[in-house]
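agent> fetching stored inputs for the zinc ion docking request
agent> found them:
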Amino acid sequence: MTTLGSHRSLSPGEIVFLGTGTSHGVPLIGCQCPVCTSDDPRNRRTRCSVAVGLPEGTILIDTPPELRLQLVREGLADIRAVLYTHAHADHLFGLDDLRIIPRYIHSPVPVYCEVNVQARIRKAFDYAFEENSPAGGVPQLEFVTIQTEPFDLLCTRVTPIRLKHGPWDILGYRFGDAAYCTDVKSFPPESLDRLRDLDVLILDCLRHEPHPTHLSVDEALAIINLLRPRRCYLTHLCHRLEHAAFAGQLPDGVEPAYDGLRIRTELTPASGDSRPASRLLTGG
Ligand SMILES: [Zn+2]
Ligand SMILES: [Zn+2]
Ligand SMILES: [Zn+2]
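agent> prediction call returned; pasting tokens
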């Protein structure tokens, strides 16, 4: 008989950076650069994800490859839903670690994503959708298809934000006065309108040099100047950005995030008038 011990939830408005690294992670395999060999734990970056505390439970944005290590590190287990930004491997391939979550929430894991992300999940994790899978042996997921219409989740209003990740259309999310926008190169005008009056903006910032699918430092600072959030935390950082040195180069109110950083913000109560269009029970 296994014993599943007590675990913490996040309080409403609490956000934890589970991972803040680019797709390779930092340190990079085989790299001996000063950042990859740094003793500062803020220079050790797992792949990108945040956990967000909502009034009725904690959610994840994305399931990166180090998800198990991230949740164990933060003492989080009762994950009430997962929202996906997109289906790139660095944001998706920890999904199998969700297998244990139904033991804590006593239901399949609600997964909010666009149709193309659901199709990728069904292909990459096909074993989760086969007949007669052993109970507990595969992720049990309940898909909720979303587009860019706002929806209610765990007593909070969530607004998806269309982001251009180079050629790919992906999603960011706004919860009250906080928004999470990783893996973005440009913002459609209507998305900029959804990002006004923010307390906290969490923003992609890969490196100083330009990149075809991610914001560079200068491009991120230009967006921050335009939107003027009260605070901004930069994420999806590569090994060319040394935490302390980079922090010293940034304007007031803008900081590099790091794995384990916890911040607080205000949430917008649910409106009660919006249900996602379709629910589909799968897996298990
Ligand atoms: Zn990424
Ligand atoms: Zn390196
Ligand atoms: Zn990506």
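agent> quick read of the result: The radius of gyration is 18 Å.
agent> awaiting further instructions
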